[in-house]
UniProtKB/TrEMBL annotation:
Top-rank taxon, per record: Eukaryota
Keyword Cytoplasm: no
Sections of the chain in a coiled coil: 143-189
InterPro entries: Actin, ATPase_NBD
Record-given protein name: Actin-related protein 5
Presence of the UniProt keyword Coiled coil in the record: yes
Any one biological process term the GO annotation gives: regulation of macromolecule metabolic process
Its job: Actins are highly conserved proteins that are involved in various types of cell motility and are ubiquitously expressed in all eukaryotic cells.
UniProt-listed Gene3D superfamilies: 3.30.420.40
C-alpha cells in the first residue's frame, strides 16, 4: 500500500495509526488537555479507548464483540417477524441500507423512546419504505417451443430408461451364466461333490430352487431384451387346465359306448401321469439324500478338524 501511495499517487507523506485517535486529534486543538473515552463502532466489534492527558492508555482498552453487522442482522430479523409476507424481500443488504440511511444513534435512549409516544412526533419522523415491486416472470415460450421442449424431455427420459434396462439386462445375463455353470455340474454324474460345494455358496438349498431361479431369469431376460429391441411380446399363454377324470368312478353299465372308450382313455392318461409323478418324486428324493449325505460328511469333517 505504501508503494502505491508514493509511486502511483505521488503522496508526499503517510502516517499510520488508529482511526479513532485521528478523529479525536482532528476535533481538539490542545492534545495535552484531552481526557476522554472513545467508543469506536466497527462492522464486527466495538472498541473502548480511554485517553488521559492526550495519550492513549493501552492497558485499559477493551473490545466488545458487537458491531454494525449485528445491528443489521437484528433489524432484518425484526422486519421479517413483523412482515412475514415479505420474508424474502427483507434481505440483509436491504436491512443494511435501512440502518445506514434511516437510523440514528440515540444519545439518551429512554428520552428518545418517550418522544415517539407523541403522535405528532411520530408523523414528523416516521419513515415509510416501499419495497420494489417486480412482476413474476411469465412463460414466454410459444406453443411450438413448449412442444419441442416436452419432446426433448421425453427423449431424454427414454434414453435414461434404456440405459438402466441395458445395465439390468447385463447383470441378469451374468447371473444366469453363473447359475447355469452350477447346473452343468449337476448334469455331470462324476462330479457331484463339486455341484454340492457350488450350491452351498449360493442362497439355494435344493436343485429344484436353482432350476426355478434359472427359469425365472430366462423369462426376465427374454422380456427385457424384447423391450430393448422394441419387439412386442406375445400374449402370455393361459395356464393349462387340470385334467379331470370324471368317468372313472362311474360303472360301465351306466355309460354309453363312447363314454366307455373315453373312460378307458382317461384311465390310461391317469396311470401315465401318476407314473411320471412317482418317477419325479423318486429322483428328487434321491438328489436330496445325496445332498444331505454330502452336507453331513462335510460337517463331520469340520468337527474333527
Amino acid at each position: 500500500m505504501s508503494e502505491l501511495l508514493f509511486e502511483c499517487y505521488n503522496i508526499p507523506q503517510v502516517s499510520y495509526g488508529i482511526d479513532a485517535m485521528f478523529s479525536l486529534y482532528a476535533n481538539h486543538d490542545r492534545m495535552e488537555d484531552i481526557n476522554s473515552l472513545i467508543v469506536s463502532c466497527g462492522y464486527q466489534t466495538t472498541h473502548l479507548l480511554p485517553v488521559l492527558g492526550g495519550r492513549l492508555d493501552a492497558s485499559q482498552c477493551r473490545r466488545i464483540n458487537l458491531g454494525g453487522y449485528h445491528l443489521e442482522t437484528f433489524m432484518q430479523r425484526l422486519l421479517q417477524l413483523k412482515y412475514p409476507g415479505h420474508f424474502a424481500a427483507v434481505s440483509l443488504n436491504r436491512a443494511e441500507e435501512l440502518v445506514r440511511d434511516h437510523c440514528h444513534l440515540a444519545p439518551d435512549y429512554n428520552a428518545d423512546l418517550h418522544e415517539w409516544v407523541s403522535n405528532d412526533y411520530y408523523d414528523d419522523n416516521v419513515h415509510k419504505i416501499q419495497l420494489p415491486y417486480t412482476n413474476a416472470p411469465g412463460n414466454q415460450l410459444s406453443a411450438e417451443q413448449t412442444k419441442e421442449r416436452r419432446e426433448q424431455q421425453i427423449k431424454r427420459l427414454k434414453e435414461v430408461t434404456a440405459k438402466r434396462r441395458l445395465e439390468k439386462l447385463a447383470s441378469e445375463e451374468q447371473k444366469l451364466q453363473e447359475l447355469m455353470s452350477i447346473q452343468e455340474l449337476l448334469e455331470d454324474e462324476d462330479d457331484d461333490e463339486a455341484f454340492d460345494r457350488a450350491l452351498q455358496n449360493t442362497s439355494f438349498d435344493t436343485p429344484e430352487e436353482l432350476q426355478s431361479e434359472i427359469n425365472r431369469l430366462t423369462i426376465a431376460i427374454q422380456r427385457n431384451r424384447a423391450k430393448v429391441l422394441g419387439i412386442e411380446l406375445p400374449p402370455a399363454e393361459e395356464p393349462k387346465k387340470q385334467t379331470v377324470y370324471d368317468l372313472l368312478e362311474i360303472p360301465d353299465d351306466q355309460l354309453s359306448a363312447d363314454q366307455v372308450l373315453t373312460k378307458k382313455k382317461q384311465r390310461m392318461l391317469k396311470n401315465a401321469r401318476e407314473g411320471r409323478l412317482r418317477a419325479q418324486a423318486l429322483q428328487i428324493e434321491k438328489r436330496q439324500k445325496v445332498f444331505h449325505y454330502s452336507s453331513v460328511q462335510r460337517s463331520d469333517a469340520t468337527g474333527r478338524c
